[in-house]
Amino acid sequence: MTTNSNSGADSLAAIEARIDQRRDQYALPEGHIAEAASPWLPFLPNVMIKHLTFDIRSNSAANVLWVQAGGVLGRHRHRGPVSGYVLDGSWRYLEYDWVGRPGDFIRESPGRTHTLVSDEGMKTIFWLNGPVEFLDEQNRVAEVMDVFWFIDHYERGCKEQGIEINRTLYL
């Protein structure tokens, strides 16, 4: 069944060609982001970030988080879902009893609070949706990070390192 208004006058090939024209007119170009296109940037002591993409339409960002041995990513709460894929090393949340290791896929529901630690060091790709709230010792929000915070972090880091901003990271 087709849903075109020409009552079957268009062939399937013509419909597909028309759809391809709309895609080419409105869709963002396909992207390839080479390793050198995004530098490792300091985030916290013993924690670095390599930004992979920023989607301002959905307030989401993807990055590789590199926590060096003994590093900690303070208590935080995500206000949207998070997915992660462990590339190297291992890490855990103080609040849970599992350990993420290479090849493990992690998914997190909005609203959970946790503290990431890595005893041996790790690298994990994260896809973050919505803001992240970092909490102080009294459970008060100390800092909020969203896609615009990550963009600012990336652009300031590039400027400090004399690296050209790579616009292919932006959706």
Relative strand content: 35-45%
Radius of gyration, CA atoms, in whole angstroms: 20 Å
By secondary-structure content and strand pairing, the structural class works out as alpha+beta
Mean pLDDT: 91
Residues in helices, as a percent range: 10-25%
Shape: globular
Instruction: Count helical runs.
Output: 2
Characterize the largest beta sheet: strand count, sense, and whether it forms a barrel. 6 strands, antiparallel
Detailed description of the structure:
The protein is of the alpha+beta class. The chain is 18% helix and 40% strand. The strands form two sheets. The chain has a six-stranded antiparallel sheet with strand order 1-2-3-10-5-8. The protein has a six-stranded antiparallel sheet with strand order 7-6-9-4-11-12. The chain is globular, with a radius of gyration of 20 Å. The protein starts with 11 loop residues before the first helix and ends in a 10-residue tail after the last helix. The model has no long low-confidence stretch (mean pLDDT 91).
